[in-house]
Specification:
single chain; mainly beta; five-stranded antiparallel beta sheet; four-stranded antiparallel beta sheet; 0% helix
Length: 134
């Protein structure tokens, strides 16, 4: 079996994207699962593809497990860690968001990993992302 997960694009505009992610775990958990694929986001009005995103805002609710959000690369780089059994919101848009600082093999994508997961643990994560273009 596998965790029951959903991904929803709420907005994918010229400057920002807003996405919602959920997980109801069967105990399997997620390990470096690509949640934001920048190549799947809309190009800008000039037709230039999105190459990376900065995290502007994050809202979350976790029950029983924590969630690690990483910038995808050869060796992933931690972007944000969401603690178990918590709800919260963090805002980074005042200073242009958390930029992708991944090194070698950077893809621009975001990966999720769950920690301490067991059956029926859950998360809901909403990300507001600032889109960057090649």
């Amino acid at each position: 079996m596998a965790d029951a997960v959903t991904s929803q694009t709420i907005q994918d505009g010229q400057r920002k994207a807003i996405m919602k992610f959920t997980n109801v775990s069967d105990g399997t958990g997620e390990s470096a699962v690509k949640k934001v694929d920048v190549s799947a986001l809309n190009a800008n009005s000039a037709g230039v593809a999105c190459t990376s995103v900065a995290i502007a805002k994050v809202w979350w609710a976790t029950t029983g497990m924590s969630v690690r959000i990483d910038f995808d690369a050869t060796t992933n780089v931690l972007a944000v860690s969401l603690p178990a059994d918590s709800t919260g919101d963090e805002y980074y848009h005042e200073f242009s968001g958390i930029p992708n600082n991944a090194g070698s093999g950077v893809t621009g994508d975001l990966d999720f990993t769950t920690l301490g997961h067991s059956s029926n643990d859950t998360y809901v994560v909403i990300l507001e992302l600032i889109k960057n273009y090649g």
